[in-house]
Amino acid sequence: MTTIREELNKILWGHRDQLDEFYIAVEDRLAPANRRLIPFTRVKRVDRHYIYLDDDTVIPIHRVREVVKKGGGVVWKKPGS
C-alpha cells in the first residue's frame, strides 16, 4: 500500500495535465461533515509533513482522509477512515 505522500507526489508529478481531475479530502472541523475538498490544481508541493497550497496555506498531511477523482472514484483512502 502506498503512503499518502507517495500518492500525492505521484499525482502531482505524474498527472500534471490532469490535475483538475483530482481532489484531496481533508479533515476540517469547521466544514460540513468535517470534510473539505481541495482541488489538486491548488497544490504546489508536498513534503513529509505538509501540503503547500497556492495561497500559502499549509495543511498537515495527517489531515488527509482520501484522494478522489472527478466522478467519485477513490484513488487513495486513509486506513481506518
Count of separate DSSP helical elements? 1
Q: How much β-strand is present in the residues?
A: 35-45%
Give the helix proportion (percent range): 10-25%
Low-confidence stretches: none
Alpha carbon gap, first and last residue: 15 Å
Give the topology, please.
Elements: H1 4-14, E1 22-27, E2 35-39, E3 43-46, E4 50-53, E5 58-60, E6 64-69, E7 73-77
Antiparallel strand pairs: 1-2, 1-6, 3-4, 4-5, 6-7
What is this entry, summarized?
This protein is mainly β and 81 residues long.
Task: Describe the protein.
This protein is mainly β and 81 residues long. It contains one helix and seven strands. The chain has one helix spanning 4-14, and strands at residues 22-27, 35-39, 43-46, 50-53, 58-60, 64-69, 73-77. The strands form two sheets. A four-stranded antiparallel sheet has the order 2-1-6-7, covered by helices on one side. The longest helix has 11 residues, at 4-14. The mean pLDDT is 91.
